[in-house]
Amino acid sequence: MMVTTLVRAAEESAPNPLIPQQAEIILGLVVLAILVWLLKKFVVPNFEKAYAERTAAIEGGMAAAATKQAEVDAKLAKLEKQLGDARHEAARIREEAREQGAAIVAELRAQGQAEQARIVEAGKAQIAAERQQAATSLRAEVGTLATSLAGKIVGESLDDDARSSRVVDRFLADLEAHQGAQGK
User: Fold this and answer.
1) Could you say which DSSP state residue 21 is in?
2) What is the rounded CA–CA span in Å between residue 139 and residue 165?
3) Measured between alpha carbons, how far is 131 from 137 in angstroms, rounded to an integer?
4) How is 87-150 classified by DSSP, letter by letter?
């Protein structure tokens, strides 16, 4: 029994490693308090400062981005307006070019028609003059042939120009009257 009593006594007098001693608890609390104070004094302000700087940088960046976005939107609107104006101007220039082209075509068409009419009239006048010349030449030649033929038929010479001219004129007038009567 004694041995058991001694073992019990030894067990009671030895500190339990699972239960800390009161001095250790106090010393741990003091060291913890000093550590918390040092963290609050030196580390936390630096973290707060870095956090504030980072927040300010992010907010500044967002404000700068918003400002840049507004500038970009304004420039985009300005460029779109300029592009619209340029398209309108191009359409106006194309329309003017079409109108000028149509006017030029109309003017050239009128000039062409006038030139055509002038050429036709000149051709008609030339044809009439050539017809008149051919008729005159033909009359003279027909007169000469008719006089020569009449002279051969009659058996005497009809070389008198005045007389042969009257005979030819009368013959051609009768011929024309005869053709005119048949044409009707």
Assistant:
1) -
2) 9
3) 10
4) HHHHHHHHHHHHHHHHHHHHHHHHHHHHHHHHHHHHHHHHHHHHHHHHHHHHHHHHHHHHHHHH
**Measured between alpha carbons, how far is 49 from 43 in angstroms, rounded to an integer?**
10
**Rounded CA gap, 107 and 84, in Å?**
34
Q: Which amino acid is at 181?
A: A
Burial class (CB in 10 A: 0-12, 13-18, 19+), 171: middle
In this structure, what is the dihedral angle of CA atoms 97, 103, 104, 110, given to the nearest 10 degrees?
170
Spatial separation of the C-alpha atoms in residues 171 and 178, rounded to whole Å: 10
Could you give the CA distance from residue 106 to residue 113 in angstroms, rounded to a whole number?
10
Torsion from C-alpha of 10, 14, 19, 25, nearest 10 degrees: 160
Q: What is the DSSP string of 66-87?
A: HHHHHHHHHHHHHHHHHHHHHH
Report pTM. 0.39
Tell me if 109 sits within 8 A of 120, measured CB to CB: no
User: Which residues lie closer than 8 Å to 142 by C-beta, 6 or more apart?
Assistant: 168, 171, 172
Q: 42-76: per-residue pLDDT in tens?
A: 999 999 999 999 999 999 999 999 999 999 999 99
